[in-house]
Amino acid sequence: MLDGSLMRDVLEHHGNDIVEQQRIQLLEGKGSDGEDLRPYYTEDIKPRGYFRTRESAQRYAAWKETLSYPYSVKRNSDAPNLYVTGVFHSEIGVEFGAEAVGIVPDTAYATRIMNKYGRNSFGLSLDKWGVIFDEKGAKDELIEKMRQMIWQ
User: Fold this and answer.
1) How far apart are CA 113 and CA 136, in angstroms?
2) Any idea where the domains of the chain sit in the sequence?
3) Which of 149, 118, 121 minimizes the C-alpha distance to 22?
4) 152 membership: H or E segment, kind and range
């Protein structure tokens, strides 16, 4: 009988790949649903937001376009990528549960950021899972494990 532990065993071998794809997805300014992270910089205005004015948010977004990033990606310049120096990106990890895989914060700082953008924003979109299974080999590993179980 096949169960979730088979999938978890395969994915545990790809923990680093999962975190890498999460970082790339964040640099693209995308959430787990494949949509832009919100609030946009120009929506994140005080009194509850971060920026004092829409203009200051626009200047910040323009400045972010001048930074160097560890991966070359395209994104909506108004969508946050949660990267300035890479601290937040380095403070996320992956957790394997009995029936789920989750991106988790490793520090209080990362927890605050994840809470602001909503925990549902974190996790891989379908295209990033495709990278894990198709390009990183998880699909072949899963098929091989299933073959072994069936023909034992």
Assistant:
1) 28
2) 4-150
3) 121
4) none
Residue type at 96 in one-letter notation: F
Which residues make beta-bridge pairs with 102? 95
Distance separating alpha carbons of residues 85 and 37, to the nearest angstrom: 19
Neighbours of 49 (CB within 10 A): 14
CA 121-125-126 angle, 5° bins: 155
What is the pTM (predicted TM-score) of this model?
0.93
d(CA 103, CA 123): 6
* Cβ–Cβ < 8 Å for 26, 83: yes
pLDDT in tens, the chain (152 residues): 456 788 999 999 999 999 999 999 999 999 999 999 999 999 999 999 999 999 999 999 999 999 999 999 999 999 999 999 999 999 999 999 878 899 999 999 999 999 999 988 999 999 999 999 999 999 999 999 999 988 97
The structure tokens listed for 64 are: 């972010």
